[in-house]
Amino acid sequence: MYEIAKIIHLVSAVIFGGVVFTEVVLLPAIKKEYGEEKFKEIEKVMIRKRGIKIVPIFVLFLYASGFYMFHIYMKEIDLSTNFAKLLILKISLALTVLLLVITAISLFIKGKSESKFFDYAHYGVFVLVFSVIILAKLMFIL
Asked: Looking at the keywords, is Transmembrane helix present (predicted)?
């Protein structure tokens, strides 16, 4: 079961990280190149018709599998090791991501996606998600 959870976690992280990358890095380039009006049309299709339906599912898979794996590790973890310290940091950052994602989705549903917080939340999630990914690898190296 653990190996299945690890695969679900990895696939969900790749998809979620890709969505965040698209929103923070790629979509602004479209806005710059084609203008606000065309950008809004593209965003409407990508985010409102697809993203808002898909992202919460993968976030659920990501966190459910992550909590399952954490439960497995916590049975035998030595909190003085680098692995444990990095795991705790990773979980702390991941919970911050979850809070920001829930907030951003709520703002989006309420039609407040034009707020500055919405933009800052996306940049924060971008930095945090890629920090979590790096920590996931460092846990097994250091």
From this structure: yes
